[in-house]
Write a structure and sequence with these properties.
Layout (H helix, E strand, L loop, with lengths): L2 E2 L8 E4 L11 H10 L7 H9 L2 H5 L5 H9 L5 H14 L5 H12 L4 E5 L3 H8 L2 H6 L2 E4 H4 L6 H11 L7 E5 L2 H9 L4 E3 L4 H7 L1 H9 L1
Parallel strand pairs: 2-3, 2-5, 3-4, 5-6
Antiparallel strand pairs: 1-6
Helix pairs in contact: 1-5, 2-4, 6-13
Length: 217
């Protein structure tokens, strides 16, 4: 379900989550491939995903190295080549983008809307995302949890992102995320929020005045 907090002052900047908004959630086939590469017993995907997510917050926050993270997932240290294979396959889970969302964002950027990416992401994924064309074309700045040393919904993450937008009034900065807890934390700081549920039309509706400006320019 998409829930949007009310904003009567208009959108002057955007803070955007990556995965689940601009980035697509990975399909089951990609999860299965990663479990296979991890040589997970009996290819039991639910238990692999449990092991994958249990230390993920610490990994995203930069508290675990690639080796330390995968050692926790596997229960033992992988060798260097295996570690690179796992890290690269993990990164591939999160690098597919939604062309419909990107199209909306390109139109908003044409209207000079400042946009800041705020993503919970480990260091290697952060570097990969930073090297993409859409990141350079669209984002005024990109803030990643591994570099900040803290993950959403930590209020400090939002404060860094707000500063990066250059906006004076949080009520004019729309925050978009697919997680309700992240939206709730942003709303507590005075940001209007869009709890994104995979429907680009919902984002487009929130940005209609900005998109109209891009058409008229």
């Amino acid at each position: 379900m998409t829930r949007t907090s009310d904003s009567r002052t208009g959108v002057e900047a955007l803070i955007l989550d990556y995965n689940g908004v601009a980035g697509l959630h990975p399909p089951a086939a990609m999860w299965t491939r990663l479990a296979d590469l991890a040589e997970w017993p009996d290819r039991h995907l639910p238990s692999f995903q449990d092991a994958f997510w249990a230390p993920r917050n610490a990994y995203d926050a930069g508290q675990l190295s690639d080796l330390a993270y995968w050692a926790k997932v596997l229960g033992h240290h992988p060798g260097p080549r295996w570690l690179r294979t796992l890290r690269d396959a993990d990164t591939a889970l999160w690098t597919r983008t939604d062309p419909h969302v990107l199209n909306i964002l390109y139109r908003a950027r044409a209207a000079r809307l400042p946009m800041v990416l705020l993503s919970n992401a480990p260091a290697h994924l952060s570097n990969v995302l930073d090297a993409t064309d859409w990141r350079h074309d669209l984002m005024t700045d990109a803030l990643y949890s591994a570099r900040l040393g803290r993950c959403k919904p930590d209020p400090a993450a939002y404060e860094h992102a707000l500063a990066a937008t250059g906006a004076d009034d949080p009520a004019r900065v729309l925050f978009v995320d697919d997680r309700e807890d992240n939206c709730r934390a942003a709303a507590e700081l005075g940001l209007p929020t869009l709890h994104y549920a995979g429907q680009p039309a919902d984002l487009e509706q929130q940005l209609l005045p900005v998109l109209a400006d891009s058409i008229g320019s």
